[in-house]
Amino acid sequence: MKEQDVLLDVKQLSIAFQQKKQKVPIVHHISFSIQKGETLGIVGESGCGKSITSMSLMGLNQQTDTTGEVHFEGQNLLSLSEKEWREIRGNDISMIFQEPMTSLNPLMPIGKQMTEALFTHQAIGQKEAKAKAVDLLETVGLKQAESLLKKYPHELSGGMRQRVMIAMAMLCHPKLMIADEPTTALDVTIQAQILRLLKKLNEEMDTAILFITHDLGVVRQICQRVMIMYAGRIVEEGTVDRIFQKPLHPYTKGLFASVPSFKEKKEKLISIAGHVPKPGAIRSGCQFAPRCPYQMAQCLEKDPALQSIEQNHRVACFLMEGGEDTESPTLASESADKTV
Ligand code: SF4
After folding, report:
1. What Gene3D superfamilies is this protein classified in (predicted)?
2. Tell me, what's the pLDDT at 71?
3. How much is the pTM?
């Protein structure tokens, strides 16, 4: 990866909540980067730290104790003032959420919301702002865009609202868009349309996308690279092709084994035994050890570091050090063609 191609570079990011007098760690020393125009997926179960990580990239979790470095085009975002953040949010980095109603103002017509966002970041006239809003609504596939400007969010369907959110996120042509489960609340056909739209915007506008999801099928459709998180750590990271062909971490293997496949007929789906640890209950050693069928003595003593197995593939598991065979009767039936 060439240094000039790196858009976002996260180094040793740790996030903790202060709960009464106790510090509750959520994210532990994670490091990753995103290249210009790249699509990176972050996958994990609820509570693994993926959403709080994305919030820190938008400066939206100021109530937390956050350490490390988040460099965006060379500037450390964690040292910005609120005024400096306002310059970057929506302009260079934008975000879309699972439920657009939480982000759209229910009392303001769509057009006003879009043009006000433009006025915040650009020296632009009313007529030009309106034309830009219409143009973007058409780009995201909304018909009769001009009349849509007068409508309120509640007058639109869920799929239309999500398209409006995407149009708003693209208003200032951001370099990075963070999409936090943007299709989870939508039905399958609308979900497919929104994913195609995001891919088109990524390709045509060269906007990098950080896609947060629990859905491996979505990652396969839209991402070039994927990062698997468990209990606030990155346990595996690599290109989508590589990880879908040969997942190596026992947790990633478990995720693949637990989703249905159209190609393989399974009697029943395999679930990963046990539960994700609660943030306050995090213990020493590998966090996945209580659920891992390959657990060894050293797994209970220290946390495995994320190591390069080969180019573009990193794994945090002691099995990789010993080159041990991770095939097991319980997790051996995973394949690269899983979808959800
Ligand atoms: Fe399992 Fe040990 Fe690897 Fe953790 S380090 S995933 S417990 S084998």
Report:
1. P-loop containing nucleotide triphosphate hydrolases
2. 96
3. 0.87
